[in-house]
Specification:
The protein is of the alpha+beta class and about 90 residues long. It has 2 helices and 4 strands.
Length: about 90
């Protein structure tokens, strides 16, 4: 979120716990991602995005975070819209 949010942008973090479930939401108003970019981000260090919309180099952060969270019985979901920002929601038991 920090790397994708322009100077003066906003990042919001919300944490809620209910019934033994914790949800952590990270939202930014940065560049956002297209659907092919989201797929690529979760693949990590993969080839180019087919539609040519790639805005940066894929890393290992999201794939590793998702695997670690899932190993603990949780989930990581990402929604994004190009030019409007990204929201990542982590749910943990």
């Amino acid at each position: 979120a920090i790397g994708a949010t322009p100077s003066g942008g906003r990042i919001r973090i919300d944490i809620a716990t209910s019934g033994g479930i914790t949800r952590i939401m990270f939202a930014d108003n940065g560049n956002g991602m297209s659907e092919p970019e989201i797929v690529r981000a979760f693949q990590g260090l993969s080839g180019p995005v087919e539609d040519g919309e790639g805005s940066g180099k894929p890393g290992l952060g999201l794939p590793l975070a998702r695997r670690l969270i899932e190993a603990h019985g949780g989930s990581l979901d990402l929604s994004s819209q190009r030019g409007k920002g990204t929201t990542v929601t982590v749910t943990l038991p």
